[in-house]
Fold this protein.
Amino acid sequence: MHYEGMIAETLSIAGDKGEPISAYVARPLGPGPFPGIVLIHHAPGWDEWYRETTRKFAHHGYAAISHNLYHRAGEGSSDDVAAKVRASGGVPDAQVVGDTEGAVAWLRAQPYHNGKVGAIGTCSGGRHTFLFACKTKSIDAAADLWGGRVVMSKEELTEKQPVAAIEFTKDLSCPLLGLFGNDDKNPPPAQVDLHEAELKKHGKHYEFHRYDGAGHGFFYYDRPMYRQEQAVDGWKKVFAFFATHLKK
Amino acid sequence: MCTSIVEIAQIEGSGKAERGWIALTTSVVSYDHPHHAEYEEAISIDFMNVDLDPGARVAVEISLESAKAFSEALRRAIKAAEALNKAA
């Protein structure tokens, strides 16, 4: 019988400007080498779904880390913490990029790491994943799952989100996977079209998959938006994409 | 949670959170994916004390139609209260 095991735990890493933030990490037992995955959590918070998904990547042979972008809002249940962050207008894009650099650096420092890192995020985390892949050259592949507000009007820009992420497309530094539901209201298909046109314009390496019969968040098995068939296919796309770019 | 529909108002009063009664500083009304209510989107209303820890919160998630009915009830109550105060 093939022995299978993993270790999963919370720890503290250096986030933006070296400030300590919490993170949840999971990896298979054994010496590796394992490719790395950074999970950038969604607006509902650093929650159980992100912990499960971190372990899912470990199950598939990755060293995975999900860092807590809401650490500075204090301790509490993920929905309470997310509400407090929402009341303060969200987290600044620059801080998210800095925190994510910290997560990537932590992975690269581990003796069992194979030298490759991918990033994945859903919802606002999808937008942040794309932003990170444009603002840095730190990762080897990025997966944006239904990231809304990549396209933003001038009226939507804020001090914390001063530039629409689509403006940075020319700087995208790695292959990009995008999964979207055609019934999503944010991002609506028209915005995904704009994003895709911008990627084409700059000759970027990307693959977008759009699903009929699905809206936003169709992987979330505990919510009404879950779509089993589309989610199963979407996960296959995710693992095939990262295997191509991180395991070879 | 990708909408940008968030309305924040400073408030005074009290709310009963999990720990008991707390003083309130802030209300946040949003339309987005709820954590618990079985809708793809819902009106979420948080009554909070942002000077305390994240658990200092009274939260509701209701359907858009419920929010309209609630809003009308609130409007009627405020109108009646103001009429009462004017008459006094």
In short: Residues 228-246 of chain A form the longest helix (19 residues). Residues 71 and 200 of chain A are 37 Å apart (CA to CA).
